[in-house]
Amino acid sequence: MARCYNCSHKVDYKVVLKSIWGGYKPIQCKECKSMLYSTKSTRLIFAALIPVPLLIQTQLSKIFGQYSFFVFFFWIVMIVSILPLIAKYSARK
């Protein structure tokens, strides 16, 4: 879970999720009011994990047939749910 670099206060899951879906907007710590910016590694991980099912589409369609769309949808929901738990924030943009 993301923490403030100044006071080590945990940032709420919903706040991190809103930051990610809002274009990685900076988060303000509730305790010390410092600004937290998502790291480039967090953005890269998210950008790399979303298209994975599309890259292996032929194998998915062989295994799941007409349900491969649901597998892709489930994958996106899973990644979106997990990313706020592994997202990292720093003091710099």
What does this structure look like?
The protein has 93 residues and is mostly helical. The protein has one domain (13-90). The protein is 54% helix and 9% strand. The chain has helices at 13-21, 40-49, 52-55, 57-64, 68-86, and strands at residues 27-28, 35-38, 89-90. A hairpin with a 6-residue loop joins strand 1 (27-28) and strand 2. The protein is elongated and about 50 Å long.
Topology:
Blueprint: H1 13-21, E1 27-28, E2 35-38, H2 40-49, H3 52-55, H4 57-64, H5 68-86, E3 89-90
Antiparallel strand pairs: 1-2, 2-3
Helix pairs in contact: 1-5
Q: State the domain count.
A: 1
**How many strand segments?**
3
Overall shape: elongated
Order of helices and strands: HEEHHHHE
Strand order of the largest sheet: 1-2-3
Labels describing this entry:
elongated; 93 residues; mainly alpha
Quick structural overview:
This protein is mainly alpha-helical and 93 residues long. Helices cover 54% and strands 9% of the residues.
